[in-house]
Amino acid sequence: MSILTSRDVLRPGPKGFKAWIQRVVFALMPGFFTFLRRWKPVMKLGNNYLTSRYDDVREVFATDPAFGVVYKPHLDVIMGGQPFFLGMADTEQYRHDTDAMRRVVRPADVPKLAAQTEALGEQIVAGADGRIDVVDTLVRRVTFTMLGDYLGVPDPPGGDLRVWGTRLFEFQFVDQGNDPALRKEVDEIAPALRMHIQNEIARRRIEPGKDDVLARCLALQAAGDPAYSDDFIRTSLTGFIVGGPPQPPMVVPQAMEQLLRRPKVLAEAQAAARAGDDDRLRRYVLEAMRFDPLAPGLPRVALTDWTLGRGTSHAVTIPAGAQVLAAFASAMMDPRRVADPRLFDPNRPASDYMHFGFGLHECFGRHINHATLHLMLKPLLRQPNLRRASGKEGKLTKNGPFAERLVVTYG
Amino acid sequence: MRQTTLSVALEVKPESYDHLSSLLDKLRERRDPDPSGGTGPFADFLTRVPAVHFMSLSVFPGFDYDPLFVIEANFDGEKGPFWAQLESAIGPELRAMLRCCKRPLDNDGPLFDSITAKDARAPIAPYLERRSLTPTVFHHGNRGMTRDRILAEHKLFEATRVELGCANVDGPNPYRSLTPRQIHAKLRAAVHPDFTWLDETAPKRIPLAQNIGDWVRLIGFIVAAVFVLSLPGLFLSLAMPWERYLILLAVVFVGIAMRLKQIGVALPGTAVATRFSFLKFFFSQLIPLVLFVLFYLVVAVAIGTPLSMLATARHFDAAWHGMVIWLLWGLAGAPVVIAGIVLWLRVIERRDASQDAPPVDPVMLREMARREDWIPQNHMGSLVLIKPGILRMILIRAGHRGLGLVLRIIARKGYLGSMRTIHFAHWAMVNNRSRLMFFSNFDQTWESYLDDFIEKAHAGLTLAWCCGVGFPPTRFLVKDGASHGRQFKEWARHSMAVSRFWYSAYKDLTAEQIERNFRIAIGLRKRTLSDKDAALWINDL
């Protein structure tokens, strides 16, 4: 079967000993970072530097003139060489492109997206007959449906946007080793996705249809705004599909797993869901995500020689060209800046979280995430007698950094 | 939960004084047009810095020193997370303020450069943490009450008011005909659905470990002080036959006492009538004193005997017996040493200059007055020069240390003795310990606050502040001093700066009201009360 018509969202994960090693590595990571925070806050590994303390991670994210993003080479493959702001420094074009997209991705949309998310989740949970896979059946379906609809990018004919988006996400953000098998798939998917969106642009130009991001771009294009060229619209929507919807199916089931591990906390989150206290529920989900965030960290590349933590006892000069991992998962567990980091506390201040990055490349969709992530779980949390399914599938399994399966039962 | 009080004092570039003041004013204006603040954009301080109770940012103009920028903060938990929260809330503004400050000449210079350089983006929290000053004395009014608990219990209080007021608006209030016990049961049933935390056990305001720590630190301090005071006696007793030693002690003590009798009286025009007498105080504390001396002996013998065995190769029996004798000789010398210190102090006090009419800048006074009395709480920050001299410096440090430790023991029920108006107050030394800062967050007006202090806590106040240049004349560290009410107030006003930015997380609550809310909540947490307890409890409703 061609990858373009495949329904397998994730590639087959490692098996046997390799899988066991991977699990052990993931399990040991929090302890390893605790060690680093205490003894080696900035650790050199060849030409790579690991930063683990809150202050240093924040400095790396905030100092974008010294620590640039590393995404451009893979983005060029996905976008066919067209520039996308995720790969840019703080240039005029970056500001122009992000401003242009902020004109069509509007704050006023957020409440509607939240309502749509909750309704979709409600519908899926109601139809699941008391047993559901949180990863694929619930969160992935809700995310891709809601965001695809909002952006104006439907499933491609014969293809599955969930597969295409997730593969390209893996290539863009996970594949540090340039896996040839994955690259082969990307070389098929990327042009196909670009073509699919270009076709949508052409179709919607004739039949504008409903109000969504694509329709707004085309309206501005028709009004003569030069920012909204076809290339820009296509590249931006491609970037949003690659960078956006593949993430909630990773992190939201991980949050659910953390809630399931804490029965008292789960009961409180369920009470908030049942009471319709969305703000409180959001706090529970964000806090649960802190215990198992999207990734250990985000990579950056040193653009110039830079002394990190200058003036402190652990100051390290990072040479230009070195790769830096800003370990935001570790930062959120740093007791120097986060009070009682091992305590599950849903009343934490915003400064304790770095789920959506920080600084120039803080997640473009953070407001949408803020309004919707918890609502993906809300319909499930409202169910009576919510518990893990028996056996292995009742515990979250992962395929590399991707959440793969977590089945819960209710009713 | 542990509460923390600290301050950061940074020297300001003289040419940046006005700019820094304007930055502080701008930050303050971000709150709300209403000078009491709290409802404008700045209200998000409550959620972004959830640890903070009170915070102030002030700039003290300087005549003897360059201006001083002071961040005063009173908050729940450890300082590291607090600084991160504060940076998240007002980081860019703080960075601009830090750029008005002088680069430290010590090892913190590179850290300062990294946060104040052009386009710098490094976090400022590490620098603020590094420059944090530990108070020499501090007082937490509603000790052990976290900010969230204060706010939650006030909500509960308001709910009880609504329930009691609206129980039956059209007819007689049903609560009037109930017994106290029934009132408790009915009120609890009415508010319980909205306050389910009433079923939870109330967190201890002072956890056991903290309680033990307070006592251990105080006892350790006193043991160390007694040991230091007995050191001259310990050495002399080794060098002299005991008969001559005793004669020497007696002669010196009598000589000092006679001299003290001569100069111990107040200088003309400086006496303030007081019922306090050192002799009466000494006799009232005689039993605890004797017990303490015994305790001291036990501790000192336990520590000293093994050392003695090690140094002299004596057997245990001989070692501990010798140690007891030696320590007793040392203790015998302690009163003479104390008397000598008191005499020395009194000689110095008699030569001290006090300022009769400290100048107050009228513009500054107007600025202060403009900011006071908008809400039930007020704030003051003061900075004074410390009098010179080695004895004074030793006494200030020891006195502040002892006073601070005593406050941790005696001020645990929300009040400082009979003073019920202080939320948070602290002293700290700055400029290489040559100046003393005082910050207080209190209820009612500045005048009434100082009157309260003058009437009810003048001895402690004098002890803490008598080292300030120009302070009203004092006797023996605690007498007179702040009792010179008018002079003391003028001196205090003279030392104050405008509280340009001041934040209170619960601006409508007095310290007294917080304790009242606490008592009501404690009662409502109980499912039932006895008739006697309920009768007491309803007094707070």
Question: Which properties best describe this structure?
Answer:
heterodimer, A: 411 residues, alpha+beta, Cytochrome p450, B: 541 residues, five-stranded antiparallel sheet, four-stranded antiparallel sheet, 54% helix, 13% strand, heme (chain A), Cyt_P450_CS (chain A), monooxygenase (chain A), iron (chain A), Cyt_P450_B (chain A)
- CATH structural architecture of chain A: Orthogonal Bundle
pLDDT averaged residue by residue of chain B = 89
The profile of the biggest β sheet of chain B is:
5 strands, antiparallel
- How many individual helices of chain B? 19
Largest interface: pair, residues per side: A-B, 25 and 30 residues
The strand line-up of the biggest sheet of chain A is 1-2-8-5-3
From the spread of the alpha carbons, the general shape of chain B counts as globular
Q: Spans of chain B with pLDDT under 50 lasting ≥5 residues? A: 35-39
Helix share of residues of chain A?
40-55%
Radius of gyration of chain A: 21 Å
SS element count, helices of chain A: 15
Strand content of chain B: 5-15%
Helix and strand composition category of chain B: alpha+beta
The CATH superfamily of chain A appears as: Cytochrome P450
| Main sheet strand line-up of chain B | 4-1-3-2-11
